From TrEMBL:
Protein name: Amidohydrolase
Organism per entry: Candidatus Nitrosocosmicus franklandianus
Any one GO MF annotation of this record: carboxy-lyase activity
Highest taxon of source: Archaea
Keywords, ordered alphabetically: Hydrolase, Lyase
Presence of keyword Methyltransferase: no
Length: 268
């Protein structure tokens, strides 16, 4: 059976294979990798930071405009001092349907996701009925403070904003159990499975994670809360597809996780 695939979590920041190459070539690398792996659509998430290696949301929008299978979720920074990636700018993009959601980066920025400073991001997501992606779990940098990134903090946001749709990124890795409780308890919370490995899965780690995701599905009950994403170029698209092929899912469950859930949530 041929399958439609949406990768709801990729980056085009200048790391891994995208180091020191211009933005148009990074988009081309993404597009080529998608094609090579039969991935139909992808969602690029812009960084909370803007610098030479991390393009702004407006730059990304400019460069992807001829790729209608590539979408954008805009990263937001509390500590933004250069006037880029602002709420006013994002409101305009949301009004024009140019961005499909917003993302905050607790842990990288040292604030809890329920910090009142994030409320304007939450309100904007509710107003335009788009999901808020929240980084959860390990930050892969010693500068991150992981207590802010623990998935348990997402519960406060979910309870206090019942109309908000939340995607906890990376399944709260390595706090899978805490993440699955948040999803089970709150009907407005989803999770993506991106970024669980740097590069390729080893056989051991793949087996370990198949177990974790199986537990997750058994506990949270429905596959409607899980979204396929990779974190490419940090994780390999090919290795990820191989990994999810090992999950024991029926056709309908697979369709939800690989495609339908993202299509519905991001309105793709
Ligand atoms: Zn990511």
């Amino acid at each position: 059976m041929t399958q439609t695939i949406i990768d709801c979590h990729v980056h085009i920041n200048g790391y891994e294979s995208l180091k020191n190459i211009p933005l148009d070539e990074r988009i081309k690398a993404l597009s080529d990798t998608m094609q090579a792996n039969n991935v139909d659509q992808a969602v690029i998430i812009s960084s909370y930071k803007v610098n030479e290696e991390r393009p702004s949301t407006s730059q990304i929008l400019e460069y992807i405009k001829n790729n209608d299978n590539i979408h954008v979720v805009a990263g937001f920074s509390i500590d933004n001092h250069d006037g880029k990636n602002t709420i006013e700018e994002y409101r305009k993009y949301l009004k024009d349907g140019k961005i499909k959601g917003l993302k905050i980066y607790p842990g990288y920025e040292h604030y809890y996701p329920y910090d009142p400073k994030y409320q304007k991001v939450i309100d904007l997501c509710i107003e335009y009925d788009v999901p808020l992606m929240i980084h959860t779990g390990d930050t892969y940098t010693p500068k991150g403070k992981i207590r802010y990134a623990h998935p348990i903090n997402v519960d406060d946001v979910a309870v206090d904003n019942p109309e908000l749709k939340i995607i906890t990124c990376h399944l709260g890795n390595p706090w899978f159990l805490d993440c699955q409780e948040i999803i089970y308890k709150n009907k407005n919370v989803y999770a993506d499975i991106s970024g669980l490995v740097l590069g390729d899965f080893t056989e051991f780690y793949e087996k370990y994670l198949v177990g974790k995701i199986t537990d997750f599905l058994n506990y949270a009950g429905e596959p409607k809360y899980l979204l396929y994403g990779t974190d490419w170029p940090i994780s390999s698209m090919k290795s990820y597809l191989n990994f999810v092929s090992k999950l024991d899912l029926n056709d309908q469950e697979r369709e939800l996780i690989m495609f339908e859930n993202s299509k519905r949530l991001f309105k793709l």
